Amino acid sequence: xxxxxxxxxxxxxxxxxxxxxxxxxxxxxxxxxxxxxxxxxxxxxxxxxxxxxxxxxxxxxxxxxxxxxxxxxx
Length: 74
What we know:
This protein is mostly beta strands. The chain is built from no helices and 5 strands. The protein has a 3-stranded mixed beta sheet, with no helix packed on it. A two-stranded antiparallel sheet has the order 1-2.
């Protein structure tokens, strides 16, 4: 799931003259064999997860479908 997202410039408010860029990589937390990808506003299952995970938490995202092909590596 590698996407190039545009940077958003804020010229007022909380980040004056600052810049906020969205990350292009997944921010799932992986510990041992558990991947927590909850609350990340994901629209698809990340494709860069380790192959040895046994638990994958995808709750509270924007997933509309979960094709079986997303789980062939894990």
